[in-house]
Structures are given as structure tokens and as C-alpha cells.
Task: inverse folding
């Protein structure tokens, strides 16, 4: 946590001036504006709807040893993601990297879809971060 946020009065001043701070089911997020960020601060935090916050959760422990969006499937590799609350199977591929690329394309398009759905309701910086979001092989 930043030193600024450690002071409650500072945090409260920041909080009440943020888009979404008074919205039900919106979450305080620390790593949309700065991907991979670990520090809660006035420069890195924002409020986002649960739908957006859940969209970018990596769940590293759940996926095991494979690239994000990829699982072992028979002799090949499967790819899937959750979209609109439902699991979407993208297919089976010969290589892990092919399965990852299928996931990456669909996930980045879905992120843009949700950014546009919430455009005008989320902070412009959040919108821009989502529209420029890249799923990395290291995610």
C-alpha cells in the first residue's frame, strides 16, 4: 500500500472522487491500470464492475502447468475461457502454443467487448487500459 493510502483521510479523499466508488458490486482494483501491479496506490487503483474484475483474474493455481487458457486434451491441447459467465470451448490443437493463441485472440476481443459495454460508466483510463490489454504468454 502506498504511504498516501496508509493515511485514512487521504484514502477517503481519493475514494470519494473515483468513478464507481458508490456503485453496488464494483470492486477496487490495483492491476488494470498497471498490469501486474502489486501495490494499492492513488496512481494504480480504480473501481470496476465485478464483471470486469473477474475477467482479468489469472487463477494461476487452478490452471496447472500450462499456458493461460490451455489444458491437456488427449494427444493435443485444449483451449477454453469463461465468457458471459459460461465456459466456452475453443477447440483442440496440436500444440500448446496454438491453443494459447486461440485463447489470446478470443480473450482480447472479449475484453474489448466488455470495455465497450461499460464505456461511459467506467473511468476513461480503465476503458483505455482494457482496449489496449494484451494477453501475454507469461500471464
Result:
Amino acid at each position: 500500500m502506498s504511504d498516501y493510502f496508509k493515511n485514512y483521510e487521504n484514502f477517503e479523499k481519493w475514494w470519494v472522487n473515483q468513478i464507481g466508488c458508490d456503485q453496488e458490486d464494483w470492486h477496487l482494483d490495483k492491476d488494470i491500470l498497471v498490469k501486474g501491479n502489486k501495490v494499492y496506490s492513488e496512481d494504480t487503483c480504480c473501481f470496476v464492475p465485478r464483471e470486469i474484475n473477474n475477467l482479468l483474474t489469472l487463477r494461476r493455481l487452478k490452471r496447472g502447468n500450462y499456458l493461460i487458457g490451455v489444458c491437456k486434451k488427449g494427444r493435443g491441447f485444449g483451449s477454453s475461457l469463461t465468457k458471459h459467465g459460461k465456459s466456452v470451448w475453443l477447440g483442440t490443437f496440436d500444440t500448446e502454443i496454438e491453443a494459447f493463441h486461440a485463447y489470446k485472440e478470443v480473450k482480447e476481443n472479449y475484453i474489448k467487448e466488455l470495455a465497450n459495454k461499460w464505456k461511459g460508466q467506467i473511468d476513461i483510463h480503465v476503458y483505455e487500459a482494457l482496449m489496449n490489454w494484451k494477453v501475454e504468454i507469461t500471464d
Notes: Residues 96-118 form the longest helix (23 residues). The first strand starts at residue 26 and ends at 29.
